[in-house]
Amino acid sequence: MPFTPRVFSGIQPSGDLHLGNYLGAIKRFVPLQQTHHCLYCVVDMHAITVWQDPDNLRRATREVAAAFVAAGVDPKQHIVYNQSRVHQHAELAWVFNCVARMGWMSRMTQWKDKTAGKNAEAESLGLFAYPSLMAADILLYKATHVPVGEDQKQHLELTRDIAQKFNNDFAPSIREQGLEADYFPNTEPVITGPATRVMSLRDGSKKMSKSDPSDQSRILMLDDADAISKKIKRATTDPEALPSEEAGLKGRPEADNLVGIYAALADTTKAEVLAQYGGQGWGAFKPALAELAVARLTPVADEMRRLIADPASIDAFMADGAARAAEIAEATMSEVRRVVGFIR
Q1: pTM as predicted
Q2: Choice among 27, 114, 153, 230 that is catalytic
Q3: Own/partner pairs, 153-160, CB within 8 angstroms, 24+ separation
Q4: Is 210 annotated in the active site?
């Protein structure tokens, strides 16, 4: 029996949202609503793998949920909620902790990057094991598709490995319970668009990040029009004019990044941007990009501010979403408990 087409994605509330979060994920959530049943989650349990101030965590959780809705996600037709409201995420994550292998976790690029040159023993167990929770987030709803950036592709591959190992390890019990042999799906990544990985405005070799010490390296979702314009006009570039073809962006990370941002904001391609601006200098392109960014981002920011000013309304649609998510989650967990042999 085929799986119901279903999308799951989540964003951590561990700091201010920036342009990379918007173009790499949130903006791409909206069109998927037309073809799939969607669950968009604020993954607050992931956030605490690194210590978070509780008040900041509550603020950031509401901000991410507000960004989903301000960008065009419909919380009535689809599901928007925060992860910690649905306890089955943690329950399935423990089962997957016992399915996944230590070697799988230790090879995860983000774990190696975060512990390189440091004392790994000082990091939280949650930081090491969180890819297992990520797999549980997805497979709890038997999601068939997950919109991800290039840097998250490895995590989805791990999710597929866990699903396959669970299906194999428990194959006899799955059959005894009268369930499909492929109990969990091989979830497919959705990696589309010209800006699946937005880079720093100061250094095109580094991903845009809220942890970068320079505020000029990123555009925050709640930046005003003046701040957006100034950051783009001050963005690092090289002395060459824009090429007329995409091949000319090779070896020019800052140029490639700004062209990709323009294309993503304009819902077009890098090739079409270069067809318009090829041969022109940054003195022409940066003001055009700034104008476009202000036009696209400020309405989202304005709606975010309106929602954030009424936190009770955000809590209400997250609570409603969590109740609906929990119905799906419990249906899965009731089967998983039987499959692994838990008595209830």
Answers
A1: 0.92
A2: 114
A3: 153/189, 153/191, 154/108, 154/109, 154/110, 155/108, 155/110, 155/131, 156/187, 156/189, 158/100, 158/104, 158/108, 158/131, 158/134, 159/131, 159/134, 159/135, 159/187, 160/186, 160/187
A4: yes
